[in-house]
Amino acid sequence: MRIDQLKEQDIETFFKAVMSLENVDECYDFFDDLMTLKEMKIFLMRFNVAQMLLDGKTYQEIEEETHASTAIISRVKRSCEEGNQSYQLLRDRLVKQDRLIIEEAQGFKH
User: Which domain of life, per UniProt (predicted)?
Assistant: First the structure.
């Protein structure tokens, strides 16, 4: 893991702080304070590229939609294939959450 190169206590404290955020509004506030707009755009671009790769999109489709360079797409693809499977984990959780929301909405209609 590349992240192991960071000072353990610092990263541990940071992750605990992120995990303590209680809702989306707190996430907006924290990440707005933490990152510049440019940093956040890069962060989001990589996340979106990963989702599109997991959807089976081609480099050309991803490049057209996100304006990511092929170098970024390649880096993200390598993470998806050789990394910790975190992009897939988050994708699976988001799909599950969406399904639960739909099921709850349908349950209220009956």
Answer: Bacteria
We report the CATH number of the domain holding residue 80 as: 1.10.1270.10
Buried/exposed 45-81: b ≥16 CB within 10 Å, e otherwise = bbeebbbbbeeebeeeebbeebebeeebbeebbebbe
C-alpha closest to that of 59 among 84, 47, 76 = 76
Domain that holds residue 16: 2-106
Domain count, the chain: 1
Residue 28 near residue 41, CB atoms below 8 Å: no
pLDDT in tens, the chain (110 residues): 677 777 777 888 999 999 999 999 999 999 999 999 999 999 999 999 999 999 999 999 999 999 999 999 999 999 999 999 999 999 999 999 888 888 888 876 55
User: pTM here?
Assistant: 0.80
Alpha carbons 32 and 54: distance in angstroms, whole number: 27
